[in-house]
Amino acid sequence: MIQLILLGFLALIVLYSLRGLWKGSSAEIQAKLRKPLLWLGLLALAVLASRLGWIVPLLGALTAAAIRYAPVLAALLPLLKRVRRADAGGGPGEAPRPPPNAGRMSRQEAYEILGLAPGASREDIISAHRRLMQKMHPDRGGSDYLAGKINQARETLLAR
User: Fold this and answer.
1) 18-55 b/e (C-beta count within 10 Å ≥ 16 → b)
2) Under 8 Å CB-to-CB from 14, ≥6 apart: which residues?
3) pTM for this predicted structure
4) Which pLDDT tens digit goes with each residue over 61-113?
5) Cβ atoms within 10 Å, residue 94
6) How far is CA 104 from CA 22, 99, 107, 110, in A?
7) What is the distance between the alpha carbons of residues 65 and 54, in angstroms, rounded to a whole number?
8) Which of 38, 39, 146, 149 has the fewest CB atoms within 10 Å distance of its CB?
9) Residue 114 burial (CB < 10 Å; 0-12/13-18/19+)?
């Protein structure tokens, strides 16, 4: 019974998607297809979950990992936004533009990277640096760029 309901829902999504395809340019068509295809993928995942018992534990493990690492990602969000803005400047085949003030880091930026309030003590700076490096070190799946920025933030704040 549930498979019939899911099949009907899938048919409605396909009909809704095809209704708007007959008008517009290819960019508009891509924009129109993005959301229905996402729902179609989620529906396919739901159908597979009923057939394959391993999908539900996998989704649970991914959810648990996302919840566990959410505070670290939230602390690095300002840095990741700056990286994305810097990468967005170049097109395919172009060298990425260097970020403004490349090589220098302001104290405010260093506090943001380490997730500290301005005026934090030396011990707080060292503790925040150690905590972030344990999670973002390249040997533990982090990137060289993020580890370098974390180190640079510590050096900026400790070099009073």
Assistant:
1) eeeeeeeeeeeeeebeeebeeebeeeeeebeeeeeeee
2) 36, 40
3) 0.39
4) 888 888 888 888 778 778 777 777 766 654 444 455 555 555 688 899 999 99
5) 8
6) 52, 10, 10, 10
7) 17
8) 38
9) buried
